[in-house]
Task: inverse folding
């Protein structure tokens, strides 16, 4: 057992912190529940600067434009960026699309897509969910029909986060409707400028603007197919397990928790005695401190497994499930402790912590990341513990 | 960063599991419980023969000199098998006090015996224990509750309130349980866990009975308690892991409504939640062990691990009794052995609330 980072890893973290301190002033940091266009663009700029130092894809092999380090360094980056509340961008390309292309892509695809991701030049969105399909993703309906040198796509994708900023969509489509449901699906990358693709706005409660993405006779060249035709489901599921440490999400929440503890130690929104002087509040803070620590360790467990060459599967679900529920426990606790002040949004002069608590409570309603909490429990029981279906 | 076990540790785990599966079946656990001693002499002898009682004690006294991580691996297995006997009390908690606070003579007199199993130490605490100087010597008076394994102990370490310097520091003294003025009464605990009320009625103490310096015992006590707490967490973890395996196995073949109950989501999700808690507990426990091994105080880490262990215990108990259902309410079913011992370890060395309080105190500005 070793809970330490190597000296080089510590040095990397130190340099990263220097960089973040210099480049990300407090007023540019993200506030929960509030994502402005300006903030998003600022996040992109930071990514470009990180990429100049080969830090953005620090865990990728150098041949693909990465930093040549591993999942631990990528985890350090995620943890510090999250803690520093850098507005997030590029994560789907870096975390999901890139790793998939590395494993299943052709050399041409690697050359075409990977360096641009590592340089922070492109944004991806993920087209998995559909209006009628969420948890039971294998039943997806969006159709991709082979027509000569092209595939023709018809249907629609739902919950397309980042759609308005994305250059490409990484998507699953049905290529063989006759086959058994998981065996007739293929994986594609679609340039969102292709004619026939249109977006319908779908604002989220956390301030993000997502979309429903409509495909109307969209023609994609064969070179857009990633991996084997009809093996897309399996390709997508294996690569989903790559970047699943969830350290960014953890650190993002941890920062607010730490700020909240500090707030409670020194003040009360109504000017009374510091909140932390109430034994009940102290107790709740300690419970969440324990929860945060557990969450952190479970995330690092995933990163460590990746670094040792193992493919985390139910372990990623353990960390993700724990995180979704811990974030909610914290949000509920902070709301309760602050009383009516917790309902004040960013912008209200009386909002504690810049309205982050009101915002994180909305964010915490997102219990569905990479699968709902029920689906993660199914995965842990069936794949992790081998329980019968 | 490396959350895996070394090859040596894997071997230790494997051999400990094999040994205990063969030598410590639940029938033996029941016998130890029924005897009222909470002890299995034959097993104790074999355990000592394997060197487990000296796993993290120095080689110069006959120990293995292993790390706390080794100790954690071992105690997971000990917990898993519901191993009876004062392993934690004597070979970790009390032995560490002697090791940290004692002088060379005291260590030489006691530690090798702890390792061979012939010496059994226990610890009596409580602020009603007081040492006073009288006729040029020390005497001990007062009583202490919840003293584990006092009935078997060859020596009792008393953490006493010193008379010469102000509370809250502690004087640690060694007491012969057979000395005149020492009386003990069983407290009649859950699963016959041997806990005693020990009364000391002006017990004169020999000159060499103070461990370390008078009124300077607190630090040694704290450190030993921290190490023992980690062992207690490991023991809890092993037990919870075993309960998880038992319910998953049972759910795979018990049939209701024409299918294995393990196909029911309510059952699966309970198991999944226990798995999450086991994984969390493992990370927290090994983190605490590792930090102590690095010579760090690890106050927060130990408290977090122990606070979580209490919650883990409760979750395992609940999952076990709900998935095994009716049969687990019978004495003949083993689940009750696990849930009773869960309560003992939950209460031992500070429960969840106690450790959350400690944690909270560290979080203040
Ligand atoms: C903020 C946000 C961002 C998102 N971003 C994206 C994105 O970028 N790309 C994308 O493709 N998708 C995205 N999604 C969609 C997300 O993946 C889905 O919401 C999720 O997979 C659940 O699907 P659903 O909402 O259709 O719920 P449903 O599948 O309809 O589930 C409804 C309820 O039924 C339960 N349920 C369903 N099946 C089972 C089962 N087998 N066992 C037990 N319970 C079950 C679910 O747990 C849930 O409680 C996003 C969603 C949100 C909220």
Result:
């Amino acid at each position: 057992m070793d809970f330490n980072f190597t000296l080089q890893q510590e040095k990397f973290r130190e340099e990263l912190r220097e960089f973040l301190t210099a480049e990300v002033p407090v007023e540019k940091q993200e506030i929960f529940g509030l994502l402005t266009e300006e903030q998003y663009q600022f996040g992109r700029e930071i990514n470009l600067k990180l990429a100049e130092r080969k830090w953005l894809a620090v865990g990728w092999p150098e041949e693909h434009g990465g930093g040549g380090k591993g999942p631990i360094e990528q985890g350090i980056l995620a943890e510090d960026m999250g803690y520093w509340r850098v507005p997030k961008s590029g994560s789907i390309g870096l975390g999901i699309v890139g790793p998939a292309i590395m494993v299943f892509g052709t050399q041409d695809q690697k050359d075409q897509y990977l360096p641009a991701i590592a340089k922070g030049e492109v944004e991806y969105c993920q087209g998995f969910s559909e209006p009628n399909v969420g948890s039971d993703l294998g039943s997806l309906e969006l159709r991709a029909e082979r027509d000569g040198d092209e595939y023709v796509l018809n249907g629609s994708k739902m919950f397309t986060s980042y759609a308005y900023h994305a250059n490409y969509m990484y998507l699953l489509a049905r290529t063989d409707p006759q086959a058994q449901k998981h065996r007739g699906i293929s994986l594609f990358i679609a340039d969102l400028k292709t004619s026939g693709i249109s977006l319908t706005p779908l604002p989220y409660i956390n301030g993000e603007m997502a979309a429903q993405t409509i495909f109307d006779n969209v023609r994609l060249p064969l070179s857009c197919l990633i991996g084997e035709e009809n093996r897309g489901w399996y390709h997508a599921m294996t690569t989903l397990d790559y970047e699943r440490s969830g350290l960014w999400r953890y650190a993002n929440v941890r920062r607010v928790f730490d700020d909240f503890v500090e707030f409670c130690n020194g003040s009360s929104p109504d000017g009374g005695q510091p909140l932390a002087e109430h034994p009940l509040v102290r107790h709740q803070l300690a419970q969440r401190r324990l929860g945060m620590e557990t969450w952190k360790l479970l995330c690092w467990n995933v990163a460590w497994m990746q670094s040792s060459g193992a493919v985390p599967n139910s372990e990623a679900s353990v960390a993700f499930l724990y995180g979704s529920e811990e974030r909610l426990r914290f949000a509920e606790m902070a709301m309760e402790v602050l009383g009516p002040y917790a309902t004040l949004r960013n912008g209200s002069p009386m909002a504690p912590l810049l309205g982050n608590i009101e915002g994180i409570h909305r964010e915490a309603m997102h219990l569905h990341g990479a699968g709902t909490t029920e689906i993660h429990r199914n995965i842990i029981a069936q794949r992790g513990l081998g329980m019968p279906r | 960063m490396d959350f895996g076990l070394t090859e040596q540790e894997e071997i230790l785990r494997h051999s400990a599991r094999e040994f205990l599966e063969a030598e410590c079946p639940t029938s033996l656990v029941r016998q130890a419980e029924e005897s009222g001693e909470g002890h299995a002499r034959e097993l104790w002898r074999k355990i000592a023969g394997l060197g487990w009682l000296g796993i993290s004690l120095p080689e110069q006294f006959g120990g293995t000199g292993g790390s706390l991580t080794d100790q954690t691996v071992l105690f997971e297995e000990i917990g898993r098998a519901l191993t009876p006997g004062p392993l934690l009390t004597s070979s970790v908690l009390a032995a560490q006090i002697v090791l940290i606070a004692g002088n060379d003579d005291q260590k030489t007199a006691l530690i090798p015996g702890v390792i061979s199993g012939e010496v059994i130490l226990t610890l009596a605490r409580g602020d009603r224990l007081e040492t006073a100087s009288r006729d040029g010597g020390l005497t001990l008076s007062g009583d202490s509750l919840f003293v584990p394994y006092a009935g078997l102990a060859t020596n009792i370490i008393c953490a006493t309130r010193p008379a010469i310097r102000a509370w809250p520091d502690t004087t640690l003294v060694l007491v012969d349980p057979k000395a005149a003025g020492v009386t003990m009464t069983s407290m009649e605990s859950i699963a016959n866990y041997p806990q005693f009320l020990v009364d000391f009625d002006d017990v004169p103490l020999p000159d060499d009975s103070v461990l370390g310096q008078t009124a300077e015992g607190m630090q040694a006590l704290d450190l030993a308690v921290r190490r023992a707490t980690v062992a207690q967490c490991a023991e809890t973890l092993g037990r919870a892991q075993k309960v998880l395996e038992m319910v998953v196995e049972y759910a795979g073949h018990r049939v209701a409504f024409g299918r294995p109950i393990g196909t029911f989501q309510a059952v699966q999700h309970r198991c999944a939640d226990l798995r999450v808690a086991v994984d969390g507990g493992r990370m927290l426990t090994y983190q605490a062990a590792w930090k102590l091994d690095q010579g760090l105080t690890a106050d927060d880490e130990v408290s977090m691990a122990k606070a979580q262990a209490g919650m883990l215990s409760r979750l395992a108990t609940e999952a076990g009794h709900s998935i095994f259902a009716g049969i687990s309410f019978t004495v003949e079913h083993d689940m009750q052995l696990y849930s009773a011992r869960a309560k003992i370890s939950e209460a031992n060395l500070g429960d969840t609330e106690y450790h959350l309080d400690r944690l909270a105190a560290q979080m203040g500005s």
Residues 219-364 of chain B form a domain with the Butyryl-CoA Dehydrogenase, subunit A; domain 3 fold (CATH 1.20.140.10). Chain B has a mean pLDDT of 95. The pocket of flavin-adenine dinucleotide is lined by residues A 125-129, 134-135, 159-161, 204, 366, 368, 371-372, 374-375, 378; B 265 (CB under 6 Å).
